[in-house]
């Protein structure tokens, strides 16, 4: 997967600022149902926030890296326990895509 340019990252972070986490990862880590939910959310919204509730910073970073690898999503930004993930949808959903809904922010 090609890495995002600085401009793309900046735009995605602007949009991500307005979002709330849609998936929360707990102590169980990446279960099959969590991966399914992440894939569904990424497919619908393209840009999502995920809250990782792991106390240990290294464990959190490892979990974020693992979910990025598993879903094929790009980690745009991590702040504390929140990770902002982006994955271009094969067919953009005009009603659900956060990139469409918040396009006005990226001027």
UniProtKB/TrEMBL annotation:
Molecular function as annotated in GO: RNA binding
Signal peptide: none
Keywords in alphabetical order: RNA-binding
SMART domains in the record: CRS1_YhbY (SM01103)
The CRM domain, residue ranges: 2-98
Pfam families xref list: CRS1_YhbY
PANTHER family on file: RNA-BINDING PROTEIN YHBY
The protein, known as: Ribosome assembly RNA-binding protein YhbY
Species in which this protein is naturally found: Acinetobacter variabilis
Phylogenetic classification of the source organism: Bacteria, Pseudomonadati, Pseudomonadota, Gammaproteobacteria, Moraxellales
Gene expressing this chain: yhbY
């Amino acid at each position: 997967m090609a890495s995002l340019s600085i401009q793309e990252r900046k735009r995605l972070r602007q949009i991500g600022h307005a979002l709330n986490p849609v998936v929360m990862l707990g102590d169980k880590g990446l279960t099959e149902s969590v991966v399914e939910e992440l894939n569904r959310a990424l497919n619908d919204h393209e840009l999502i926030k995920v809250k990782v509730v792991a106390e240990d910073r290294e464990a959190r970073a490892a979990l974020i890296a693992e979910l990025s690898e598993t879903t094929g999503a790009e980690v745009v930004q991590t702040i504390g326990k929140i990770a902002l993930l982006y994955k271009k949808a094969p067919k953009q959903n005009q009603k659900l895509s956060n990139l469409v809904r918040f396009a006005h922010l990226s001027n």
